[in-house]
C-alpha cells in the first residue's frame, strides 16, 4: 500500500493570490495596449481584446469563487465542498 500523501499547507492550497495576480497582469496588459492606442499608432487589435477578456473573465471567475466560498462558510447545502473556511 502506498504511503499517505500529506495535504498541502493552507498557504499553497489557497488559489486567491494566484487568481488576483494573474487577473492584475491581464489588466496591466490591457492598460498598456490601450495606452499604446491613445498615445501611439497602435490599433485596438486582438491583443487588446484578448487582454481585456482575460481580466474580465478573471474577475468573473474570482467573484464566482468568492460566492461559492461564502456559501460553503454559511453551510449552504448547494455549496461546493473543500473550498476552505478562511
Concise account of the structure shown:
The chain is an all-alpha fold. The protein contains 3 helices and no strands. It has a domain at 16-72.
Describe the structure.
With 86 residues, this protein is mainly α. It has a domain of 57 residues. 66% of the residues lie in helices and 0% in strands. The protein has three helices and no strands. Helix 2 packs antiparallel against helix 3. The protein is elongated, with a radius of gyration of 19 Å. The relative contact order is 0.13. The mean pLDDT is 89.
Number of strands: 0
Strand fraction equals under 5%
Task: List the secondary-structure elements in sequence, H or E.
Answer: HHH
As a whole number of angstroms, the C-alpha radius of gyration is 19 Å
* Biggest beta sheet attributes: none
Poorly predicted regions are: none
What is the CA–CA distance across the termini?
Answer: 33 Å
Number of helical elements: 3
Helix content: 55-70%
If you average the pLDDT, what whole number results?
A: 89
Q: Helix- and strand-based class?
A: mainly alpha
Shape by Cα distribution: elongated
Amino acid at each position: 500500500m502506498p504511503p499517505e500523501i500529506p495535504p498541502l499547507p493552507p498557504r499553497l492550497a489557497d488559489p486567491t493570490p494566484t487568481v488576483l495576480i494573474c487577473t492584475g497582469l491581464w489588466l496591466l496588459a490591457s492598460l498598456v495596449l490601450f495606452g499604446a492606442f491613445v498615445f501611439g499608432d497602435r490599433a485596438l487589435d486582438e491583443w487588446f481584446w484578448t487582454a481585456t477578456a482575460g481580466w474580465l473573465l478573471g474577475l468573473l471567475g474570482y467573484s464566482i469563487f468568492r460566492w461559492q466560498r461564502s456559501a460553503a462558510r454559511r453551510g449552504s447545502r448547494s455549496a461546493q465542498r473543500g473550498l476552505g473556511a478562511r
